[in-house]
Specification:
The chain is mostly helical. It contains 18 helices and no strands. Pfam families: MFS_1.
Length: 419
């Protein structure tokens, strides 16, 4: 793989930075595990332990998580440029330490909301920073592959932890045992981030000297944070199309996280069965990204994103139409494939277009929009479910997802340098 070198010894490329890259993959798996501890158990806690009577109230933890993570993403990009990547990563893990205990022993729903605010900060700081650090290390040639590995590690860990906590809850109850995994993850990740991870900001500075932007990109890198926000959100067709698609993608994830388990439980599935379904989607999504990120490096980004959004829409429609474990399992697999096509490819689009001098801020803005989808999805799905029922709410999100895919097809230009 392509590498470059200066007198300082900085080299770009996956092979040249394999040890640090692999370490960051492991750290991001622990980031995903922190999220996975909630996927099966928390929707059931809302109903069975705290006796919340409406879907909107039950989804407040996703709303709190998504809003906090979205805003934190923005600052993570800015702070990683100002202070360095590693301090931001360590700060994110320090904030995570009390979260498992609050989930396991919190005496009221307010404690669960507070834990998810802290979890949102943790995820915004740590996941954003591991993304930025991997982009720094690999250079322009293998961004799709790098994002595939990053997101695969995170979401395979989400799936594995969702399945594990479901199995633990089936035998030991909804609290506290399932959340002890999260406590172990936080301690291990803090140790790795403090003592083993190295700073990568100089890699981005080295790449900036040799940067060649694609059509629509900025070449001199001299943009304010406000200009980066406007360019990523509205002005650049590829960046803005990626931002809206990312938001809708995570809106879908909020639906899968908060509404799907309620639908499955309403049809009589056991906690263990719900745990399997909750794990299938992120497992396929996570593992598939190792292929789709690499694939986007060879055939381009736009068509994979369009196809993935439309496949997600079809899968969500199948969940709404289904009534059995087999149908829902098929839908979860299709939803995972569609999301795998989209997730690392959207991040690669940001890396393609953004100048290295403002790329971390562009990633932060994109992730602000993308993870804002958690909050929008929780609110929209909850309101629709309370007003019309679970199934109509799911159909509405399916239609919105299809519209997002069509918008990508119309607005986005191809960003990969080879294409």
């Amino acid at each position: 793989m392509t590498t470059s070198e200066t007198n300082s010894g900085i080299r770009l490329g996956l092979r040249a930075n394999l040890a640090q890259f692999s370490l960051l993959v492991a750290v991001n798996a622990l980031v995903g595990g922190m999220l996975g501890q909630e996927r099966t158990v928390l929707p059931l806690l809302a109903e069975d332990v705290f006796h919340l009577s409406t879907a909107t109230l039950g989804l407040t933890y996703i709303l709190a998580f998504g809003a906090t993570k979205a805003v934190t993403n923005f600052f993570a990009g800015t702070w990683s440029d100002r202070f360095g990547r590693k301090p931001v990563l360590i700060a994110g893990w320090l904030i995570a330490l009390p979260v498992p205990a609050m989930l396991a022993w919190g005496p009221s729903w307010g404690w669960i909301i507070a834990a998810n605010i802290l979890l949102g900060i943790n995820q915004g700081l740590t996941w954003s920073t591991t993304v930025i650090m991997k982009i720094d290390l690999v250079g322009p040639e293998r961004r799709g592959l790098a994002m595939g590995f990053n997101e695969a590690a995170g979401y395979v860990a989400v799936a594995a932890t969702a399945m594990a906590t479901g199995a633990i809850a089936e035998h030991a109850g909804l609290r506290p045992a399932p959340f002890l995994l999260g406590a172990a993850y936080a301690v291990l990740a803090l140790g790795l981030s403090t003592f083993a991870v190295r700073e990568t900001r100089d890699h981005a500075r080295f790449e900036a000297v040799r940067h060649r932007a694609p059509a629509g990109g900025d070449r001199d890198g001299q943009l304010t944070t406000g200009q980066v926000a406007r360019l990523t959100s509205f002005r650049d067709k590829a960046l803005s199309a990626a931002s809206q698609a990312g938001m809708v993608n995570n809106l879908n994830d909020a639906l899968a996280w908060g509404i799907f388990p309620l639908l499955f439980a309403a049809h009589g599935l056991s906690i263990a069965q719900i745990g399997i379904l909750a794990a299938l989607y992120p497992a396929v999504w996570g593992a598939g990204q190792m292929l789709t990120g690499w694939w986007s490096d060879h055939i381009g980004r736009k068509h994979l994103i369009t196809t993935g959004m439309l496949l997600q829409a079809a899968a969500i429609g199948l969940v709404a139409a289904g009534t059995t474990f087999g149908v829902w399992a098929t839908a979860q697999i299709l939803l995972g494939i569609g999301t795998a096509l989209v997730y690392p490819t959207l991040l690669a689009v940001i890396g393609d277009v953004a100048h290295p001098a403002w790329r971390a801020r562009a990633v932060g803005v994109y992730r602000l929009w993308r993870d804002g989808g958690f909050a929008v999805g929780a609110l929209l799905a909850g309101v629709l479910a309370d007003a019309y029922g679970l199934t109509p709410a799911i159909w509405a999100i399916a239609a919105l997802t299809a519209a997002s895919g069509l918008l990508v097809a119309v607005r986005m230009y191809e960003t990969h340098p080879r294409n």
